[in-house]
Prior knowledge:
The chain is α+β, with helices and mostly antiparallel strands. It has helices spanning 2-29, 31-60, 91-100, 135-139, 165-172, 216-219, 250-267, 269-272, 282-287, 290-322, 324-332, 337-373, 388-414, 418-423, 426-429, 432-468, and strands at 71-78, 104-119, 122-131, 145-146, 160-163, 182-185, 188-195, 211-214, 239-244, 275-281.
Amino acid sequence: MEAQRDQRGLTWLEDLARDFRFACRTLRKAPGFTVVAVLTLALGIGANSAMFSVINAVLLRPLPFPSPERLTAVASIDLRATAGASGSASWPDYFDWRSAARAFEHLSAYRETGFTLVDGGRAFHIPGAVVTSDLLSTLGVKPVLGRDFLGDEERASADVALISDSIWRSQFAAAPDVVGRAITLNARRFTIVGVMPPGFHFPVSVPAAEIWITNAEDARVDNPADTPMTAERGAHFIRVIGRLRPTASVASAQAELDVICAALARAHPDESGHRGVRVTPELDRLVGDARQSLLVLLAAVGCVLLIACVNLANLLLARGAGRGREMALRTALGASARRIVRQLLTESLVLAALGTGCGLALAYGSIALLVRLAPVTVRGLDQVTIDGPVVVFTAVIGGVSALIFGLIPAFQTARTDPAIGAAATARATQGRGQRRLRGALVIAETAIGVVLLVGAGLLLRSFDRLLRTAPGFEPQHLVTATFRLPDSRYPYRKQIVF
């Protein structure tokens, strides 16, 4: 019994190998058709692969932290605004949330900033962030050298910093004793307490932060009469990220923070009376409006691939009409319709394999252009690549494409009457049913093309209107710049002339 099953399996593999060799010989005899078919498929599959590589990096790839599904963004929103924006919070609101909320294991805050790093008489602008002491605990990350921030290092007197792996290597030559050394940032000396792992990237933004200091920076004041930023409830400029407890959900955290915000509105009606809170998964916040745009673009390139498949189906129908004599001869020699369909589908699979390979190469070459055209603020664009999921996706759409463009022509060709096929006249090989099928394919192709053209026209019209929108000022020959004066030389605000 086992021997019979093995023999049948071997026979099936031998038949498949013969079909493959015959398909290669057949396609090699028609180089013009093969080149056109492969290029048509490569354009459609390559566009889909390139677009999916972007979607995979931006939408599907999880955040590079432990249990990323528990990371949430907590945003303070203005209830008077139609869109409920802004998304930023104030330090006092954050401190109240952190002390009262129980749905979170950790609740941290941060803001992006920049530092002037002075080293050996040279100055470098380094992107960085001001963070609370428990940020790394929230993210589930630990320094590879040294330690994390301590809770009491949120006081104004704390001058400590964490540095990235790249800063450690470029500025300190990867010295193992870097912990405890001093670093000059914005003309003030900080003590390095730790080095982050290679590839650590937070905030998840461009450019990536390289140095992190605590919110002691915002607790400082120019003189004792000033109010520190950490006490300004009306100043909304920080972002809040939390890690939910395993038993909590986004909905339960939202309900809890709604109660807390209602209490804050009663206690501080002037600053918090019109403000609410919104809890969302951190990945959703990072993706933002890019999700809808990317899905629309994926649908558009999907339509392009569908048009390519319809084109190939038409080409295969026309080619099948010219192979009537061959099919009639094979039928006369005893080949069944099933056997002929399998042979024709094998040819379609070979075409699909060639088109998939060329499409992957085309996608690899076009990724750089896609990333260059996309907004730099979109999360994950720096990680777009042709990886395992993209290759699997490409192989799947290649196989599905082979079925779409190969199945109907294969059945139609296999049904050729031997007598009609032997006549081999153009009129005979294209019967009424075949002409109707080709007409239906042309109509479908035209309909899909019209949808794409209308969508592209609307997009161009919207873009043109956006370019013509008046900003309310004359933007020509205007530039913007940000200057930060060192606190060591200008410790008081009155010394700075605005």
